[in-house]
């Protein structure tokens, strides 16, 4: 059986991480005077975590995603934690869409376990899938050594005027996923607002 971790060259991981940081920094610094921090739009974070949703332990991922979104220029309206239940996840995402946020990032529930139902909850809400974003997140996850990010079943797409993206829940997958998603989200949101 092939071990995926052994096929990734550590130098490639370092190079991919450096390239992602440089890309985000370059785009962040393009016009710092005329670009206010919240210019990109509003976002909402949905953390899918059974134990955190039931109050057994707080999830550190909500604050991490919130911080990364703020650094990318998003105003984060809220972080919502729900259990790995299809209806609960769908309701959280749909509430954000109805509330008019520009971006919903869900974290967790994208693996192959019985409670990993985030893609099934998300798919009925999407008017258009953005498979390029899905594949970019998976590819960068593998390149960065975040196996759960690389093997994620997470979806990305538009629900009305809202971009919805599912990412895996390890810290490495979140950091890498957000470095990949942030510039793509900016492009998608700007494209939508032109209509």
Describe what you observe in this structure:
The protein is 47% helix and 17% strand. The protein has 195 residues and is α/β, with parallel strands linked by helices. The protein has a six-stranded mixed sheet, with helices on both faces. Helix 1 runs parallel beside helix 8 (171-193) and helix 6 (131-143) runs antiparallel to helix 8 (171-193). It is globular. It starts with 9 loop residues before the first helix and ends with a helix.
Give the secondary structure arrangement, pairings included.
Layout: H1 10-28, E1 41-48, H2 50-53, H3 61-71, E2 74-82, H4 86-98, E3 103-107, H5 118-122, E4 128-129, H6 131-143, H7 147-150, E5 156-159, E6 162-167, H8 171-193
Parallel strand pairs: 1-2, 1-3, 3-6
Antiparallel strand pairs: 4-5, 5-6
Helix pairs in contact: 1-8, 3-8, 6-8
């Amino acid at each position: 059986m092939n071990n995926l971790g052994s096929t990734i060259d550590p130098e490639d991981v370092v190079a991919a991480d450096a390239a992602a940081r440089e890309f985000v920094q370059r785009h962040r610094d393009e016009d710092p005077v005329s670009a206010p921090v919240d210019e990109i739009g509003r976002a909402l974070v949905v953390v899918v975590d059974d134990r955190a949703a039931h109050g057994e332990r707080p999830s550190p991922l909500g604050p991490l995603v919130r911080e990364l979104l703020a650094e990318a220029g998003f105003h984060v309206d809220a972080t919502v934690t729900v259990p790995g239940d299809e209806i609960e996840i769908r309701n959280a995402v749909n509430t954000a869409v109805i509330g008019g946020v520009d971006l919903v990032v869900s974290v967790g529930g994208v693996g192959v376990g019985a409670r990993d139902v985030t893609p099934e909850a998300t798919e009925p809400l999407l008017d258009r899938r953005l498979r390029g974003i899905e594949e970019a997140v998976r590819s960068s996850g593998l390149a960065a050594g975040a196996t759960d990010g690389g093997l994620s079943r997470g979806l990305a797409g538009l629900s009305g005027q809202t971009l919805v993206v599912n990412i895996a829940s390890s810290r490495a997958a979140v950091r890498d996923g957000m470095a990949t998603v942030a510039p793509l989200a900016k492009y998608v949101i700007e494209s939508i607002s032109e209509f």
